[in-house]
Amino acid sequence: MKNNLKNQEIERRLNLYQVFLALYERHGHLLDEILQLENLYQPSLTELKLRYVQGFVDASSVYVITNLCNNQTQTLQQPQQVWTIGRDLNNGICTDDQHLSRCHAAIQYIVNQGFYLVDFHSTNGSSVNGETVYQPVKLKDGDRIRLGSLTFDFFLNHQRRILPTLPTDLLTQLIPLPTDIQQQALGDNTVYQEQVELANLDETVQISLDCAWGRLEYGRDGLHEQQKSEILDRYFQQPNNFNVGSED
Known about the structure:
Blueprint: H1 2-38, E1 52-58, E2 61-66, E3 74-76, E4 82-86, E5 93-94, E6 105-110, E7 114-119, E8 126-128, E9 131-132, E10 137-138, E11 143-147, E12 150-156, H2 168-171, H3 179-199, E13 207-211, E14 214-218, H4 225-237
Parallel strand pairs: 1-12, 4-5
Antiparallel strand pairs: 1-2, 2-3, 4-6, 6-7, 7-10, 8-9, 8-11, 11-12, 13-14
């Protein structure tokens, strides 16, 4: 009787273990989140950080920003625009997670297409949003990626904007800068404002000139032929403007 109960208990535990494995393979990121929430207020997890990789495209520059390397945020540029991930030190993103293969996967950027996750037939596999990766998968902003037991979020930078300068009343409330840096910042702001003002000028703007012959309108294309003719006529009509010098 006791042996039957033991066998039943062992079978029950084995079934639970198999269910857990299947659940973790399909929804491992959810279990990770549950464990993090359960232990959120424990002292050992007070320094828990969000693990992430961000793809960044700026004109001709492409790079990733991540904190997967030694838990420190780093900017990584790669000439072939491929960032490998694994336990081996030769990887662009190296982490000592024991469930990762030596070269587990890679994030690859393809021009005019975007960032892709590529799995290198790793032992413990890769997934994006709970879906196992069997071929390259295009990544979107906010995707949850799992490599082995390593889980992180992928963010995609869409654009870069230059913000306007702050008004003086706000600048006075900020932390004071050293005098030399403050003067340099003010100088840069002045140049920037001048560039913005020039850029916003209407293409048909004209410059008015007052002279002895009247008011001239000088456009971006210079004086018109009629204006040039009028200037010459007025010039030669003025006294002492056309005197022939005597020979010595």
